Amino acid sequence: MPVPPGLVEAYRKARYRVLGPDGDFELRVGEPSPAADALLGREAASCAALLTAWNPRSRTRDDAANAAAQATLQADLAGHPVHPAEGSGDKWEVEPSLFVAGLSRAEALVLAQRHGQHAFLWLERGGPVELVLADAPA
Questions:
Q1: What is the pLDDT of residue 74?
Q2: Neighbours of 49 (CB within 10 A)
Q3: Cα–Cα–Cα angle for 101, 51, 138, nearest 5°?
Q4: Which of 7-25 are b and which e, b meaning 16 or more Cβ less than 10 Å from the residue's Cβ?
Q5: CA atoms within 13 A on the CB side of 35
């Protein structure tokens, strides 16, 4: 299902914050993140994704359903270093998210699709943060 153009722009402009062990930091689409690079170095990882299971397809649902979906996503990520994160924008309240070190773009795409998400963030150490649409190939 294609992402409505207005949502793509909202995702690009959203605020993404990682609650890292050495302090919080922001991820901005299109920009590198020295703080994310440092965390990836600490985790001995070359890439990461920021994922959520909240409000699939950007449709609001109750907190209990969101929390259950997020717990399932967390279970899907067993074996990967995971750090709490959050995303917020003009069109939505803060949504709990997960910053996952060492998760390949292909793995992140599968998880985003499984959890009904239009998009996710992905980055390689030293590179800019990318907004990846979940209906696009990995």
A1: 97
A2: 26
A3: 80
A4: beebbeebebbbebeeeeb
A5: 15
